[in-house]
What does this fold into?
Amino acid sequence: MNIHDIAKISGYSSSTVSRVINNRNYVSKKARQDIQKVIHDFDYVPNDVARDLSKGKTHNIGVVLPHTDHPYYTQLVEGIMSAAFPAGYRIVMLPSKFNAEIEMDYLNRLRRKAYDAIIFTSHGISLNELLEYQQYGSIVICHNPGELNIAAAYTHREESYTEAFKWIKSQNYQHISILLSRAYKISATAQKTFQAYRNTFGSEPDKNLLNTDVTTFKDGYNAAMKLCHNNQPDIYFTNGDDIAAGVRQFYLDNNLPVPRLIGQEDQLSGKILNIPTINHHFHEVGKLACGLAINNEIKQLSVESDFIFRNQKNIEN
Amino acid sequence: MNIHDIAKISGYSSSTVSRVINNRNYVSKKARQDIQKVIHDFDYVPNDVARDLSKGKTHNIGVVLPHTDHPYYTQLVEGIMSAAFPAGYRIVMLPSKFNAEIEMDYLNRLRRKAYDAIIFTSHGISLNELLEYQQYGSIVICHNPGELNIAAAYTHREESYTEAFKWIKSQNYQHISILLSRAYKISATAQKTFQAYRNTFGSEPDKNLLNTDVTTFKDGYNAAMKLCHNNQPDIYFTNGDDIAAGVRQFYLDNNLPVPRLIGQEDQLSGKILNIPTINHHFHEVGKLACGLAINNEIKQLSVESDFIFRNQKNIEN
DNA sequence: GTGAAAGCGCTAACAT
DNA sequence: ATGTTAGCGCTTTCAC
It folds into this structure.
């Protein structure tokens, strides 16, 4: 049962039927009623794929996600959805595991018009490759693209990071451990972290107190296990409250005094444990990213991040 | 640039080009090479929407989500994606806020072939309405549909709930507060909870110690605020570790002794605070649901849930 | 092995 | 107001 069947049965043409379906003008009352009756009687609904093909638009936005269990992505997705829904767009989840091949596949699907736009919450492929694909559709990334002319929504990490390190300095902590999710070379976030450190202390972070590929509670726990012996950090600057919680857990489990912690993302674990944190407002970032995607605007939007100070107490478990 | 252009330029027909694109047999080596050269030279890629229309299949699965911030849904979505990805399917997020109208809209999009199947992680509309729509595509729900012949993947709550209540009974707790996300009448989960209570205690739960619409840390906090005066619960059976954490926080903030807590979902907060919990294995449920959706199988699959005992300590903050 | 042509189902410019 | 028709771009059957 398609639009032509309805046309034939009702005795009108498919264009008139189309007008009725789409609530357009230039349809007589009678025609509208006749056609609506047939539509109703035959329980007809139009086919969205055919409509999309004809219009050259899907109202879908692809969202590339390295992993879904991390709060960074959850918050971003929520923000994106909050902007997509009222605009009549839907989100297609594209898990990537940072795999460049998979990311390229998704990029090619943009060319193939599988979705109208694509948002990279994070990406392994180079910015140059992304630039090349801009001609095929709207591409938005979620970090600062620097000079490159690519649509981006991101959080300003510099200020809050610097604020956090200034606070660390003011407290005279000596052995500062930094936990990162990805290596310095490939991660802009890691670079911002180091930059803030340098700006504050005028020196490089201690490489012996550095750990990368830390993304979960368990990772934080394991990092602490490795680091607690080297130089015994008196503070951990971590990339997530959950991770800070993991560090804390290791110390508790081993009857060691819990060092100072700084988290990120303003997660529940930080609230519970009173760990100071940094709120990056990823929900807002997601909203902005989605707006850019929908309107196909190539510009950069940023939001401020906040260092949230909390007076961590030494909690016994 | 479409398949006909490639056909014209290469001097072959569009069907031969199609065969090349899809790596089909019955194409001479020469034709394949000629065509591939043209495809390459003109940087041609096929259009996915046209393909979908022609094949009558989108490889998209809609996933209806009342809200995205709750771990129940996060875990489910992850599970669904873990099964969808290797099968070449993509997930379209469909936020519903339990709004029946929105849900109906999504159901109608299934009819319109916007996706091949739809998974309701939860739903406000009636099972009967879902049953009616089965003729239009694969529909999967994530709770026990009872006698109804509808595809479902779900967790067996009875055993773990009963185990939890039995433990409560063994400890002689008298004032048992129960926190629920949705009201008894509309929530199968609430009903299972009550049933387990009845089976264990042979009586109804105390209505004065009941709270519904509790879904977040903050809700748990507020529920505790309301309940701590009525009958002073000595244990809270909550619908999430985060919620239990909220209850705990209220007591701590008011310098009251923290009562016993039981959480659900095996969340990080429960791990940190050593709160006993119930793991419903929603990741696995999501996987199963996705399998049913893809294969259009109308059957019921269930997984066991586990009561995870932990020796909650009274933690000072 | 290759091609013509009829789908898939809807939209929209143009004509009347 | 309504209809004709040419798209949108790919797949697939059938004939050769």
